Amino acid sequence: MVSQGITDYELFSDNNSKRIIVRFPWKENDENFDPVKAVDDLAATAHLSFRNPDGEEVMNGSAVQSASARVSNEGEYLVLLDLNEEGKQIFSDVTEKYLKKPISIYMDDTLLSAPTVQAHITDGSAQITGDFTAEEAQTLANQINGGALPFTLTVASYSGISPTLGQNSLTAMGYAGIIAFILIALFMIIRYRVPGLVAVIALVGQMALSVVAITRYFGVFNSFTMTLPGIAGLILSVGMGVDANIITAERIKEEFRSGKSLDSAVDKGTKNSLSAIIDGNMTVVIVSIILLLVFGPTNILSLIFGQSTTGTIYAFGYTLLMGTISNFIMGVWLSRVMLKSIINVKCLRKKWLFGGVGE
């Protein structure tokens, strides 16, 4: 599911009926969503086999630990296979025995590739190439991961639920978020003036960076269908961003009240607020990571907390973590850079613009 960009899913087992139950949202652009095909794709497994020149199977999918789609240095899409310990030894023997000879790779009875063994491979890593597109490589990797399972899945039943209610909720939350942001922006600018304006700019940057991070623009991060828990995580991270900027603005005002000059007040205020902001944000980061580890794909404590909550809580923790990291970049670092740059603008060097008493 995660490999397909869906992390907002629920996955748990029904021990009484010996079934696996999966619930997941479909993507917004899937206007003609077919639940039958979606379930079939999830249940589809294939038998992966490696065959010698005589067509005899010399290794099967049980030797594969994982498969992932990658891009080569030449820009070609390929599938990288990581073999388990047993498979590593088998593959080493196969590549040694059939050196300079072809080893065919089959998915069921479909030939995927017939590369010639160029070297004795002992590290348990292999590549499947075949003029793939990005989607084909990812699909193949998913099928191989399914084919490596020692069992097959059979669809017992399925159903689809109209997204109307969820769409209405998302729309309502979207409007609520816009209205709340406008009110917060007005409050920050009226009360804190220049630091408030800087805070609003930092918040816009924080939201933009968070959205970019969760849409897989950066390949190292996952992407997923946005649902209510995910939006809740983003909104909470915005609250952390507002809190960080308010702490800084209040520290600057305190320095003014103690008689500091403009330069000294901004410098001391930003420095004195840093430890409190970092402490608060690091606490949220730690909680987010715990949520990801407990309720994410790894499910290290799902036996205690229950697997049925996996998807929603994982989405909340994931967006909260991305938003908090974005706050460190925008609300902590960039806002300070902007403040210290603005005080060098001659026409803006007035204490009252930074929260002090007018000269």
Write the layout of secondary structure elements.
Layout: E1 10-14, E2 19-23, H1 35-43, E3 48-51, E4 57-60, E5 64-71, E6 77-83, H2 85-97, E7 104-107, E8 110-113, E9 125-132, H3 134-147, H4 164-192, H5 194-214, H6 228-257, H7 262-295, H8 302-305, H9 310-342
Helix pairs in contact: 4-5, 4-6, 5-6, 5-9, 6-7, 6-9, 7-9
Task: Describe the structure in your own words.
This protein folds into 2 domains: 2-147, Gyrase A, domain 2; 164-354, Multidrug efflux transporter AcrB transmembrane domain (Multidrug efflux transporter AcrB transmembrane fold), CATH 1.20.1640. Helix 5 (194-214) packs antiparallel against helix 6 (228-257) and helix 6 (228-257) runs parallel beside helix 9 (310-342). It is elongated, with a radius of gyration of 27 Å. It starts with 9 loop residues before the first strand and ends in a 17-residue tail after the last helix. The model has no long low-confidence stretch (mean pLDDT 80). The longest helix has 34 residues, at 262-295. It has helices at 35-43, 85-97, 134-147, 164-192, 194-214, 228-257, 262-295, 302-305, 310-342, and strands at 10-14, 19-23, 48-51, 57-60, 64-71, 77-83, 104-107, 110-113, 125-132. The strands form 3 sheets. A 4-stranded antiparallel β-sheet has the order 4-3-7-8, covered by helices on one side. It is built from 9 helices and 9 strands. With 359 residues, it is an alpha+beta fold. It is 52% helix and 14% strand. Strand 1 (10-14) and strand 2 (19-23) form a beta hairpin.
